[in-house]
From TrEMBL:
Pathway annotation: Cofactor biosynthesis; adenosylcobalamin biosynthesis
Alphabetic keyword roster: Cobalamin biosynthesis, Methyltransferase, S-adenosyl-L-methionine, Transferase
EC category: transferase
Protein name: Precorrin-3B C(17)-methyltransferase
Natural source organism: Micromonospora parva
NCBIfam families named in the record: cobJ_cbiH (TIGR01466)
Classification via PANTHER family: COBALT-FACTOR III C(17)-METHYLTRANSFERASE-RELATED (PTHR47036:SF1)
Lineage, uppermost ranks: Bacteria, Bacillati, Actinomycetota, Actinomycetes, Micromonosporales
Length: 575
C-alpha cells in the first residue's frame, strides 16, 4: 500500500506572498520540505524537479504543466507534483499519483492547509486499489487490466499461493491458470511468465537469495551469479524479498552493493543459527572456515524472519570462484491487523486505522462498529459481523481467515488492546500470521478530554464486569487502587444485569477519598447522544450509569476548576 509518510525531499515553489505563506506552513510541519528559490519561478520549479522526490507548487496548474512537460521521463522515477491554488482551497495531484506518492501527498497537503485534495486517478476516485499501490512490483498490461477492473469486465486472478491481497472487486475472480480464456488476467507469481496486452503480473516478495562469498568478492561477480541462477530457474528478480548471509559477511562490500542495487535488504544470521538448518549440501570445509556447514542454502531458508520451515529450496548452492548463491521460496503469511476505531467519531479515527481497513480483504467486528466504517471499506471487502457477547468467536474467525493467507482487519472500539479484541485474537494467532497493531483513542482518553484533565497524574483502568473476572478479584483491585490514591477509570461500570457493582466500588473508594472528590460520567463519548455529568463520590447516583458510560473518579488532589476536573501533576513549581 502507499506509504503514509511524506516523501523524503519535498521542494516548495511559490510565486506570490500568499504562496510563500502556504509554503511556510508546510515547511514548519515537514523539516524535509524546503522553499526552492531561483531568479525565476520556472527556474525554481526545474531545480525542485531535479533535486527533490516531490514538488508542491503554489502556482496555476497550466503554468506548472508548461514548465514540467519537457522534463517528463518516466512515472516510476519522475517526482510527484502537487499544485495548490493561490487561496489554498485545492491541492491537485498533478503527476505521480501512485508511483510517486502524489495522491497521498495531495491528501497530506490538503490536511495541513485545510484545503480539498483533488485526485483524478480513476482507481482512487472509485475506491479501488491501484495495481501499482499494493507495495509489490507490477508489470505487463497494467493500464489495460486496471481499466478492465474499473469497467467491471471479467478479470481472472491467478496466484501461485494465497497472498494477503487487499479487497478486489467482484469482477476479479480467482481461477486456475490452466483455465482457457483470452480475457484479462492478473497473475501473482515469482516465475518468469509470458505476458500480452491483457495480462498484468504482480511480483510477491517470495524469494530469498542466500549468498556466501570469499573476502573481497567483486560485486559484479555476486550480481552476475545471482541473475544467472534466477534466470536459469525461471524466477524474476523483482520477487526477491532480501539477500541473506552469515553475520561475518554483513560488511562484505560486494554482497551489500548487490543488495543495494536490487533495492532489497541484506539480512545476516549468526553461524549457530545457520548451522541448525537442515540443508541438502553441507560442507565440512565451510564449517571449518565460518562455523556452519552451510551459508548460502541455510541463509536462503532462514530468510528474513528465521522461519526455515516456511521455505522451499528452489536452487541449491551454485558457485563461482568467489561467490555462492542459493534461492528459496518462502510461503506467504496471513496478515491480521488489530484496529482500534477510537471512541466513535470519524475525526477521532486515526489515518492508520483507515489505511488498514482499506488494506484488508476481510473485516471482522461487532455489527455496530462495522456500521461506523462501511463507507471506508473498498468494494469487494468481505465483512464478518456478529453481535454482542461473541468476542471469542470473532477473534477465532479473524485468526482463521488470516491463517488461510488472507489480509484481515479485526476491529474494536477505542484502542483494540484495551478491554477489546487484541487479547483474545493474539491468544490464538500463531507464527503463520503477521500481526499489525493499530492504536486508537481509548474511551478513557475521550472521556478525559471532555471532563477536563482528570488523568493528569497516575491513574488506573478497571473493568467492573464480573462475567470473566470473579468479583472478589475485582474488589481486591479496587481496594488496591483506592489505597494507592490513583485516579480511577471504570470500564463496563453498570448494566441491567450488573446493577450493584459500581455502588460497591464507589463505596470502597469513598473510604479513602474526601467526600467531595470529583467524579465524572461520560456517556457516548464523541458519539450521538454524548452526555457529561459531574458529581462527587458522595453524591453520584449509579442509576445514571450504563454500559455506554465511562466513570472517572479523581484522586484526593483532583479538583473542579471552572467546571472541569483537574488532577494536578504535582510539580514543585506549584509550591
Amino acid at each position: 500500500m502507499t506509504d503514509q509518510n511524506p516523501p523524503a525531499r519535498i521542494g516548495l515553489v511559490a510565486a506570490t506572498a500568499a504562496g510563500r505563506r502556504h509554503a511556510d506552513t508546510l515547511a514548519a510541519a515537514w523539516p524535509h520540505a524546503r522553499l526552492v528559490e531561483r531568479d525565476t519561478v520556472a527556474e525554481a520549479l526545474r531545480a525542485a524537479w531535479a533535486g527533490c522526490d516531490a514538488v508542491v507548487a503554489f502556482l496555476a496548474t497550466g503554468a506548472v504543466v508548461r514548465i514540467v512537460a519537457p522534463l517528463l521521463h518516466d512515472k516510476r522515477t519522475d517526482p510527484a507534483v502537487v499544485v495548490v491554488d493561490e487561496a489554498a482551497r485545492h491541492a491537485v495531484a498533478l503527476l505521480g499519483g501512485h508511483a510517486g506518492g502524489g495522491n497521498a501527498l495531495a491528501e497530506q497537503v490538503a490536511a495541513l492547509l485545510d484545503a480539498r485534495a483533488v485526485i483524478t486517478t480513476a482507481t482512487d476516485a472509485v475506491g479501488l486499489p491501484g495495481l501499482d499501490t499494493l507495495g509489490w512490483p507490477v508489470h505487463g498490461a497494467v493500464a489495460a487490466v486496471s481499466r478492465a477492473i474499473l469497467d467491471g469486465e471479467p478479470v481472472r486472478l491467478v496466484a501461485d499461493a494465497d497472498w494477503p491481497l487487499p479487497a478486489l472487486p467482484p469482477n476479479v475472480r480467482a481461477s486456475d491458470e490452466d483455465t482457457p480464456d483470452d480475457g484479462y488476467r492478473l497473475l501473482v507469481t515469482d516465475r518468469v511468465v509470458p505476458t500480452d496486452g491483457r495480462t498484468a503480473v504482480l511480483r510477491p516478495p517470495s524469494l530469498v537469495a542466500g549468498v556466501g562469498a570469499s573476502r573481497g568478492v567483486p560485486a559484479a561477480e555476486v550480481a552476475e551469479l545471482l541473475h544467472r541462477v534466477l534466470a536459469e530457474a525461471g524466477l524474476d528478480p523483482a520477487s526477491l524479498r532480501c539477500l541473506a548471509s552469515a553475520d561475518i559477511k554483513a560488511d562484505e562490500a560486494g554482497i551489500r552493493s548487490t543488495a543495494d542495487t536490487l533495492g532489497v535488504p541484506l539480512v545476516t544470521w549468526p553461524a549457530t543459527r545457520l548451522a541448525a538448518v537442515d540443508v541438502p549440501h553441507p560442507s565440512e570445509v565451510v564449517r571449518a572456515a565460518v562455523g556452519t556447514p552451510s551459508v548460502a542454502e541455510a541463509a536462503a531458508l532462514l530468510g528474513s524472519d528465521g522461519r526455515a520451515g516456511d521455505a522451499t529450496l528452489l536452487v541449491s548452492k551454485t558457485a563461482t570462484a568467489m561467490a555462492t548463491v542459493a534461492v528459496a521460496r518462502h510461503a506467504p503469511r496471513g496478515r491480521l491487523a488489530v484496529v482500534g476505531l477510537g471512541p466513535g467519531a470519524a475525526d477521532l479515527r486515526t489515518p492508520r486505522a483507515v489505511t488498514e481497513l482499506r488494506r484488508a480483504a476481510v473485516v471482522v467486528g461487532l455489527d455496530q462498529y462495522l456500521d461506523q466504517v462501511r463507507d471506508v471499506l473498498r468494494p469487494g471487502t468481505r465483512v464478518l459481523a456478529s453481535g454482542l457477547g461473541a468476542e471469542e468467536a470473532r477473534a477465532r474467525a479473524a485468526v482463521a481467515e488470516a491463517a488461510a493467507g488472507r489480509a484481515v482487519a479485526l476491529i474494536g472500539s477505542g484502542d483494540a488492546g484495551v478491554y477489546a479484541m487484541a487479547s483474545p485474537a493474539l491468544e490464538y494467532a500463531d507464527e503463520r500470521i503477521d500481526v499489525v497493531g493499530v492504536p486508537g483513542v481509548t474511551a478513557a482518553l475521550a472521556a478525559g478530554a471532555l471532563l477536563g484533565a482528570p488523568l493528569g497524574h497516575d491513574h488506573a483502568y478497571l473493568s467492573l464486569s464480573d462475567l470473566h473476572t470473579p468479583w472478589d478479584v475485582i474488589e481486591r483491585r479496587v481496594t488496591a487502587v483506592a489505597e494507592g490514591d490513583f485516579v480511577t477509570i471504570f470500564y463496563n461500570p453498570r448494566s441491567r444485569a450488573r446493577d450493584w457493582q459500581l455502588g460497591k466500588a464507589l463505596g470502597i473508594l469513598a473510604g479513602h477519598r474526601p467526600p467531595d472528590t470529583p467524579v465524572g460520567v461520560v456517556r457516548n463519548a464523541s458519539r450521538p447522544g454524548e452526555q457529561v455529568h459531574l458529581a462527587t463520590v458522595a453524591t453520584l447516583d449509579p442509576a445514571i450509569v450504563d454500559m455506554y458510560s465511562v466513570v472517572v473518579v479523581g484522586n484526593s488532589d483532583t479538583r473542579l476548576v471552572a467546571g472541569r476536573m483537574v488532577t494536578p501533576r504535582g510539580y514543585r513549581w506549584r509550591s
